[in-house]
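hey m, so remember when u said the tokens were messed up on ur end? i reran from scratch. heres the input so u can diff it against urs
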Amino acid sequence: MLLIGSVGLRIGQTYLTTSLELLATTAFIAVVSSAISLILGYPVGNFLATLGAKSRGFLGALLVLPFLLPPFLIGITLLPLRGDDLDSNLGILLIICAHVVMNVGFVARIVASSQLPLEQLEAARLDGASNFLVRLRVSLPQQRAALAAAGLLIALYSATSYGLVISLGQGVVATLETEIAISSLRDLDLSRSFVLALLQTLLTLTLFVFAQRAGAKPTPVFGEVPSSLPSRLGAVLALLFVLAIGLIIWNIAGRALSLNGGLLQNLASLGTKGAREILNLTVLEAGANSLRNMVVASLIVLPLAWIAAGRQRSSLLYVLPIGISPVVLGLGFLILSGYLPRDLSGWWLVPLVQSIFLFPLAYQIIRPARLGMSREILEAAQMDGATKLRVFGSIEGPILARPLAAAAAFVSLASLGEFGAASFLATGSGATLPLVIFRLASRPGEENLGMAMTAAMLFVLLALVVVLLISRESQTPDRER
């Protein structure tokens, strides 16, 4: 009995140690990714604010493009950098680098939109302060709330980037999410999955508390940008990140154009199930599934985000769902579906789960825009007897069309590229486009990889067109340079 008790104690200690190591690894990746993204994104945002409207719109769109791409797709394109001897330390470094590339553009947009009036900065310079001191003592204190909110968002996303870890980590890097998936799908150990899910929730709450103490407050991502002081460092960093993004796009496009007989052959192959029919459905059918899920998720998220954004009291609680792992949500709904009637446990579970963690993204964009509206106009319309629907259609909707379009675009692209929850819930003929791309890219053969890269290239082009459209700024003569 003593021997059995001793063995049980050792197993328990190993179990606890491993779980805490997973928590530490996940927290390290999330915090370091967020910190580096903020540090590098700040000067890039200052540089964006010095550009004219057209240049700023194009460069800002290019920089924010990786933020809207599926994380696993970034991982696949960066695989050649890992080499043959990938250890856990190098894997973690590559994952952090990928997170930084994905999120620097988002931070830059936040920084550019939260600039102080140039007159205020120039006044500080006339008092003898250098550009560095002006930003350190004048700009940063007033931008702290915006940066804290952006940092929280990035940390939560980085803590739940399941697709990136499994594609770039290649089984060498283990995080809470990857182990939850292994414990539940491979080992059928739901008790361990539950413990790991609790640890991930603890990490989310900890990040939330730190952001709240820093005064995190949502700030417009796309809005009017005041001019700023010159930033040479920002210009250099912007160039480096543009080159990195260009290499990612070239890596995808180059393989789509060269493998399996070229682009035309790859496009024709999208109507097939891959070499030796390794898929359950064609790539085009998977794309149709993703489009359907996107429409449903958007119809759920956007009205709820609009209502929440109109509340007078703001709360970071609206951001918390981002920290709930899509894998955990997928697992939870997968278990729940076993208790539901068969007719109620179908494809709709995927967009429902997606709407939970897409809601904070829409709220982050819509909330500042609604707060910036003149309350007098709305109150005058209500006093004239206009209903809320009439006020939205005649006043709020037209005025806030741009942030609403940006929220819809972000939610739509994020839904199309979602991987974690779909890997649990979208099976068989309900598989989504990201799942199909990942399966094709992980199978040998030029035909499969060519199809995967072609589908990925189409996604990149779609994301680039969308972000270019929502990045356009209204131009007036006094804003042109």
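this time it looks ok to me. Confidence is low (pLDDT under 50) at residues 1-13, 474-481. if urs says something different then somethings off w ur setup not the seq
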